[in-house]
Amino acid sequence: MSRHLTQRLAFGLLILATLATTVPIVLIVGYIAAAGLPAISLEFLTAMPRDGMRAGGIWPAIVGTLLLTAGTAVVAVPLGIAAAIYLAEYAKDTPLTRAIRIAIINLAGIPSVVYGLFGLGLFVLFLGFGTSILAGSLTLAIMTLPVIISTTEEALRAVPQAFRVVSISLGGTKWQTIRRIVLPQALPGILTGVILGLERAAGETAPILFTAAAFFLPRLPNSPLDATMALPYHLFVIATQVPGMPVQIQYGTALVLLVFVLSMNFFATIIRSRARARRQW
């Protein structure tokens, strides 16, 4: 077989693999959009639910999802980045640090329902937070930490060592080098990890089922210790627990959640692109 024929065959297989991956995703998103758009209206997005969630809107679920995602970011992002900085820049290569890295990778693969049960036992029952935004945010933060730590550490290690050597040779301290040189250069990779973690948190049902979400709550929460509705759990309830629920409302809720997650990706992509344009390597 000639080299050119082998190359064309390889390209053909790559194209088939790409189509097999992307076409189903496009079809699913298109189907959800087509089925859910008839339900989208100002009332649907801004009104309180009523009639057992068969009428009204999903405003409390939207606000609850935003609050849970924001609470997760406040806890997980600083802790995750700080842990990654320590592992990548300060910790020595010892059996202990290698064991910690393996544990972090393993924690990223634990099913979300296990994190939900952990949050129920620790935050809801033991610490007495009850079913609340605080308990749900802390549970989601623990779930997203492994992803943020792993991706941030890899992004930091990808920055060329020469940048650190030059900074320190010019009189900069180790922390000044990390803060002013390494972190800005690693920002695109760090943002990727943060967005992946927060997207998972925004779309999870099992953790908030045990720690934060309410079945039907036609009002907005007043404090972090209040329960809240959330889009993933709301979608689960109206799709499985409410008889006679119009299908277009189910798909409309799914479309809103999809747009929420894709919007996070969109803004993260813009920020990453600008950061990469300023990168010096």
What does this structure look like?
The protein has about 280 residues and is an all-alpha fold. The protein has one domain (about 60-280): MetI-like fold (Orthogonal Bundle), CATH 1.10.3720. Helices cover about 75% and strands about 0% of the residues. It is built from eleven helices and two strands, in the order H-H-E-E-H-H-H-H-H-H-H-H-H. The protein has a two-stranded antiparallel ribbon with strand order 1-2. Strand 1 (about 50) and strand 2 (about 55) form a beta hairpin. Helix 3 runs parallel beside helix 6, helix 3 (about 60-90) runs antiparallel to helix 8 (about 175-205) and helix 10 (about 230-240) runs antiparallel to helix 11 (about 245-280). The mean pLDDT is about 90.
Task: Draw up the topology in text.
Elements: H1 3-36, H2 42-46, E1 49-50, E2 55-56, H3 59-90, H4 95-108, H5 112-126, H6 133-158, H7 161-169, H8 174-203, H9 206-211, H10 231-240, H11 247-278
Antiparallel strand pairs: 1-2
CATH superfamily: MetI-like
Estimate the strand proportion. under 5%
Count of distinct strands = 2
Number of domains: 1
Distance between the termini: 39 Å
The CATH top-level class label: Mainly Alpha
Cα-atom radius of gyration: 22 Å
* Overall helicity: over 70%
How is the biggest beta sheet arranged?
Answer: 2 strands, antiparallel
The general outline is globular
Report mean pLDDT, rounded to a whole number: 89
**In the CATH scheme, what's the topology name?**
MetI-like fold
Order of helices and strands: HHEEHHHHHHHHH
